[in-house]
Amino acid sequence: MAALDPCDRCEEMMQPYLDRVLTDRERVEAQSHLDKCEYCAKRYRFEVSLRQFVREAATEAMAPELKLRLSALRTPL
User: Is residue 49 one of the residues assigned to a domain?
Assistant: First the structure.
């Protein structure tokens, strides 16, 4: 089996890295790659910003009209 491209491997580990669920070895591997690869570091910063935005958005009250509109868009499972 061929080894993953380092950026593909970093992509695979990005969410677990952000969730802090990697082993120590995996964490070091991910951090090492982020230190060397500007593309992946940029993706990491984006993911951190996105998570922050979602956390903040989740604490804001949703307008009742928007809730109704979103509810109408739901499809049954």
Answer: yes
Per-residue pLDDT tens digits of the chain, which is 77 residues long: 456 798 999 999 999 999 999 999 999 999 999 999 999 999 999 999 999 998 888 787 888 898 899 888 887 76
| Number of structural domains found in the chain | 1
Q: Is residue 17 part of a domain?
A: yes
The per-residue DSSP string of 19-65 comes to: TT-S-HHHHHHHHHHHHH-HHHHHHHHHHHHHHHHHHHHHHSPPPHH
Phi, psi values for residue 19, rounded to 5°:
-80, -5
